Amino acid sequence: MQQLPIFVNLVGRQVILVGDGEPAEAKARLVRAAGGELAGEDAANAVLAFVALEDDAQAHAAATRLRARGLLVNVVDKPAMSDFLMGAIIDRSPVVVAISTAGASASLARALRTRLEALLPASLGPLARAILAARDAVSAKHPTPNDRRRLWERALAQGGPLDPFAAQSEPEAAVSQVVEGASGASRQLLVIDVASFDPGDLTLNQLNALARCDALLVEGPVAPAVIDRARRDAVRLEAVPDPLPPGLMVLLRVSR
């Protein structure tokens, strides 16, 4: 990972914009959409800065002045001069997806956005808001963090009642129905025989199981890239316990 992807809260905060024309206006629209307040270069309380100047020397000079004040600067279409880059954005607020190629190709980022945008239904934003609104009800009915995690993982899994890639006609009703369901953990052991060092060779079901497992056991020289696909806070075990612990246990082993 060449850069750290972050989402910055700009509501009510100043953002400096230097330059004019369509590139500057495009950044202005993004700042306004995120609730930020546009300001000139002399703004004292700005948190970020955009420079939209075509001339390299002028752009470099403006970025240097702003950077000297401790600001992170984005120079439009000049990634080598920038402290941060703006990815291609898919907006399903409050769900936002940003795609970056670290400046390698804006066209590639746009192509990925076009393909991914077609996969994300318009109901994704309302679904996220419905889940947020149900937080207190979920905590009351499913009191432990593990109960809540299992509840949402089952509901949001591919083909589940809240599959985020499936259109929801009534997100609030769908979320309410899920909240009223059970979250208790069954005891399950899934054995995954790993035949290569490439996690891309795993099936979607295997990747999904690794991402949501409660416990993980590794036998043999399984590639670190495969092990890294497992849920990071899953309990690491040295042997299969008897009885099995509550939840999903995944055994990764080298295929014989």
Task: Please describe what this structure looks like.
35% of the residues lie in helices and 21% in strands. The mean pLDDT is 91. Strand 5 (88-92) and strand 6 (95-99) form a beta hairpin. The chain contains nine helices and ten strands. It is globular and about 70 Å long. The protein has helices at 22-33, 56-68, 106-119, 124-133, 135-141, 145-156, 171-179, 204-212, 224-227, and strands at 14-19, 37-39, 46-52, 72-75, 88-92, 95-99, 187-194, 215-219, 235-237, 247-254. It folds into four domains: 1-86, Rossmann fold; 88-119, 2-Layer Sandwich (Double Stranded RNA Binding Domain); 124-179, no CATH class; 187-254, no CATH class. The chain is α/β, with parallel strands linked by helices and 256 residues long. It has a four-stranded parallel beta sheet with strand order 2-1-3-4, sandwiched between helices. The chain has a four-stranded parallel beta sheet with strand order 7-10-8-9, covered by helices on one side. It has a two-stranded antiparallel sheet with strand order 5-6.
